[in-house]
């Protein structure tokens, strides 16, 4: 193990550049997966049986596929149909689709957790179904959904490492290159990668615990 060589300024910069890309992919994917998951979860919750059933089939299908397969399909198969994406956007799209399906179930469960009596009271006071959903149900559900949502975002951040399969220059990709260049850099580089993942995910877990404490 060569910690001094592995942690040279050049190598640290290389690893941190990969980590920055990891964070960028995670940030983009979190935003879009939350939007997609909220839309899909709300559709499953609403009173449109046919649309809700179709949405449920789509969600269940995606949730039962490996994320690696989805990313690989987007990067390798879609170009044959004329749809080309960079490694960055192929990863972000795959994560958005997969995590969006996971978040959809969190959203649906959160909406279902709201007491039906509140909905009936809101409707009887003159609010439409969509107004009740927007102003009464959704705000309360979001508070209850916050802890599991943050936990899902932690999983999303860790799943960015799967992008190594399509050569996205994220953290694990750069660690692999560094380890391949100099074998005795492997353990120091992996330990640094583990520390970086741990710091960010631990901060997110603290946020999840605080949100859970406020919820209950």
TrEMBL record:
Q: How does it sit in the membrane?
A: Multi-pass membrane protein
**Domain ABC transmembrane type-1, residue spans:** 19-208
Family annotation (PROSITE patterns): ABC_TM1
Protein's UniProt keywords contain Hydrolase: no
Q: Which InterPro entries match?
A: AA_ABC_transptr_permease_3TM, ArtM/GltK/GlnP/TcyL/YhdX-like, MetI-like, MetI-like_sf
Q: PANTHER family, per this entry?
A: INNER MEMBRANE AMINO-ACID ABC TRANSPORTER PERMEASE PROTEIN YHDY (PTHR30614:SF41), MEMBRANE COMPONENT OF AMINO ACID ABC TRANSPORTER (PTHR30614)
Q: What is this protein called?
A: Glutamine transport system permease protein
Q: Native species of this protein?
A: Paenibacillus sediminis
């Amino acid at each position: 193990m060569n910690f001094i060589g592995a942690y040279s300024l050049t190598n640290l910069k290389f690893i941190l550049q990969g980590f920055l890309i990891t964070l960028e992919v995670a940030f983009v994917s979190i935003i879009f997966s939350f939007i997609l998951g909220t839309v899909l979860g709300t559709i499953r919750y609403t009173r449109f049986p046919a649309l809700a059933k179709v949405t449920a089939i789509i969600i269940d299908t995606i949730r039962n596929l490996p994320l690696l397969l989805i990313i690989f399909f987007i990067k390798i198969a879609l170009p044959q149909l004329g749809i080309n994406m960079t490694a960055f956007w192929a990863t972000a799209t795959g994560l958005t689709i997969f995590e969006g399906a996971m978040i959809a179930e969190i959203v649906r469960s959160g909406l279902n957790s709201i007491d039906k009596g509140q909905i009936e009271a809101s409707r009887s006071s003159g609010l439409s179904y969509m107004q009740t959903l927007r102003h009464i149900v959704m705000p309360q559900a979001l508070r209850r959904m916050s802890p599991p949502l943050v936990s899902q975002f932690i999983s999303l951040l860790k799943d960015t490492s799967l992008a190594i399969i399509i050569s996205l220059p994220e953290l694990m990709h750069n660690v692999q290159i560094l380890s391949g260049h100099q074998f005795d850099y492997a353990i120091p580089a992996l330990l640094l990668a583990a520390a970086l993942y741990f710091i960010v995910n631990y901060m997110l877990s603290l946020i999840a615990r605080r949100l859970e404490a406020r919820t209950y």
